[in-house]
């Protein structure tokens, strides 16, 4: 009897697990699951920032005959949510690189690069005619940095979330902000009478 019951439970579990499916969606499609920061918001921010920066007259002039070197500093997350701000800047950086107007120094891998340079010059295992030379990296001319903040308000069954993403491009030598912009997003969600 116990064995029969166990077999029935196993069969039911297999039937139920067999009913679930995974569908692929459009990564660029609008996701509206809730008011939390999501992929649509990331794509809107990146698109707005890049489009605005590439048509800003001083930036257009600066990038006509050369590709300035930029490094991205950490974006400060001032929201109460866990938001991967590095993912936002990665998308912005990729779009700017692919525009052919900018080059980027990746400061997140400096220690690993230093280890590789030390290995190439000091290990005795690397042909010195092919080893990368110390002190030949190109310094960044600009630093990109910013803030991500939100204001959350609730009124009965309604939740309103306002997000603001600010990004700036600083000339490292002069300390002058050459470009700045912000993208605002507002999301509102109302619960139905039955809490659905």
UniProtKB/TrEMBL annotation:
CC annotations in GO: periplasmic side of cell outer membrane
Keyword tags: Signal
NCBIfam families hit by this protein: lp
InterPro entries linked to this entry: LpoB
Single GO molecular function: enzyme regulator activity
Signal peptide start-end: 1-17
Organism of origin: Alcanivorax borkumensis (strain ATCC 700651 / DSM 11573 / NCIMB 13689 / SK2)
Name the record gives this protein: Penicillin-binding protein activator LpoB
Glycoprotein listed as a keyword: no
One matching Pfam family: LpoB
Biological processes, Gene Ontology terms: peptidoglycan biosynthetic process
Keyword Signal assigned: yes
């Amino acid at each position: 009897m116990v064995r029969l019951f166990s077999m029935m439970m196993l069969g039911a579990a297999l039937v139920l697990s067999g009913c679930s499916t995974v569908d692929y969606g459009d990564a660029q499609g609008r996701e509206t699951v809730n008011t939390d920061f999501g992929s649509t918001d990331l794509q809107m921010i990146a698109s707005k920032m890049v489009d605005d920066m590439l048509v800003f007259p001083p930036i257009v002039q600066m990038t006509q005959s050369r590709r300035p070197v930029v490094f991205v500093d950490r974006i400060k997350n001032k929201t109460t949510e866990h938001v991967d701000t590095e993912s936002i800047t990665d998308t912005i950086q990729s779009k700017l690189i692919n525009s052919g107007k900018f080059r980027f120094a990746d400061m997140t891998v400096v220690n690993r690069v230093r280890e590789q340079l030390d290995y190439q010059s000091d290990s005795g295992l690397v042909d010195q005619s092919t080893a990368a030379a110390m002190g030949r990296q190109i310094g960044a001319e600009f630093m990109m940095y910013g803030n991500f903040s939100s204001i959350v308000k609730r009124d009965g069954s309604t939740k309103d979330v306002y997000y603001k993403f600010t990004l700036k491009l600083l000339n490292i030598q002069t300390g002058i902000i050459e470009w700045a912009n912000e993208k605002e997003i507002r999301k509102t969600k109302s619960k139905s009478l039955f809490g659905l």
